[in-house]
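Final report, closing paragraph on structural work. Over the funding period we assembled a curated collection of sequence-structure pairs, and we close with a single example.
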Amino acid sequence: MQISLVVNNKLESVDVEPRTLLVDLLREKLGLTGTHVGCDTSQCGACTVHLNSEAIKSCTILAAQAADQKITTIEGVANQDGSLHPIQESFRNNHGLQCGFCTPGMIMTSLKIIEKYKEKKVNEEIIRHELEGNFCRCTGYQSIVDSISDYLENSSEKL
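Its predicted structure, as stored:
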């Protein structure tokens, strides 16, 4: 079947089998390999993307269900000029990544945390709660929490 969807602000029309997962469409058909497959059970969050501005695990939705929808992947987060988005800079500056496997999903989830809490005071407990469903097997989360906290405390950017 052929579906059309907007991925990172670009209209895409692709042929997919009805059983194709969105994560497989992104990685295999569109070459957007920043979205990772970590567990195949929707437990790890490595495949997190935004579907119509909501963070979802792309291994839990069929590509056909995303037809005529707007998808943003980690490749669509950087600025137009290719420079890193400020949350990506915060991850880099606060060592919020190690092996990098979970980083795309963490950043996509972080963007939703930032949107939700940009006008509110947050603490580490809230950030950790909001990160539930995203696993990092390397950093122990502290640097990831620090990256989000630093962004929320110091960024003047309005999303």
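The chain has two domains: 2-76, 86-154. The chain has a mean pLDDT of 93. We thank the funder for supporting this effort.
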